[in-house]
Amino acid sequence: MLRHWLEAHGFAEHERYGGISVLFLGQQKTFLGVQGGVELSLPLNEDEIKELYIRFLLTEKTPTQWDEWDDFIRSLGSEFGFKIKGPDDDLLSCCDYFTLLTHNENFQEFQSNYKWNVDRETEEP
Q: Do residues 18 and 6 make contact, with C-beta atoms less than 8 angstroms apart?
């Protein structure tokens, strides 16, 4: 069910290995080669998904994408009841995604390098 939902939202399988399916949403050329804009590792046994690994590619294009990423994570929370892991491994509401993103060390380094303006009004559901 989740796989079909992801595919309906533009994800496509990139590869499979060790019981995991790696799906990409969009692709971008980087100095490391072509990478998924959003990379999601989905267990092939979808009967009970206990954890998803989702990686968001940080580039100079990130500010044009973070609203879309926020909507995506919020949808996972509302549609499937997923929570996101906070900095202390606490499980938090998907509504906290943008705050967690902007407090991430890697994000802050990119923000500093690219001078991203992260001041935006966040709306609660």
A: no
Q: Do 15 and 49 share a structural domain?
A: yes
Split into its structural domains, the chain has a count of 2
Q: CA–CA separation, 20 vs 123, rounded Å? A: 34
Residues 17 and 38 in one domain: yes
**Token pair 């709306």 in the structure block, residue:** 123
In a domain, 4, yes or no: yes
The answer on 69 and 49 residing in a single domain is no
Angle at 106 between CA 105 and CA 110, to 5 degrees: 115
CA quadruple 82, 86, 90, 93: dihedral positive or negative? Answer: negative
Lookup: tokens for 27: 């692709």
* pLDDT by 10s per residue, the chain, length 125: 899 999 999 999 999 999 999 999 998 888 888 899 999 999 998 778 888 999 999 998 899 999 999 999 999 999 999 999 998 999 999 999 999 999 999 999 999 999 999 886 544 44
Question: What is the domain extent for residue 43?
Answer: 1-57
